[in-house]
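In response to reviewer comment 3 from the previous cycle, which asked for concrete evidence that the modeling workflow produces usable outputs, we include below a single protein chain processed end to end. The sequence was submitted unchanged, and the resulting structure tokens are shown without manual editing.
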Amino acid sequence: MAQSATPKWTELAVGTAIIEPGSARQNRTGDWRSQRPIWDHDKCIRCGVCVIFCPEGCIHFGQEKDTYPSADLEYCKGCAICAQECPTTCIQMMEEEE
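The workflow returned the following structure tokens.
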């Protein structure tokens, strides 16, 4: 049987369609997000807990001194783990708008 150009989900590698190590950056995973993290900088103590717990590794501090963390929304899936783990509850999840 000939394979179609787009494989069926049953033909994909177990876990994801990413079968080459280090190739996740080629796939924008933020497109299916339904909510996004928003930081309240008045409450943020810049502890980095959100960076540590983000399963996608898409939360980073800026290059300049005294910057606050932010999520790369092209890869953030809106899982809210950052908001759940934040000790100061400075991260709120906001619904995406179309």
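DSSP finds two helices and four strands in the chain. We consider this sufficient to address the reviewer's concern, and the full set will be provided in the supplementary archive.
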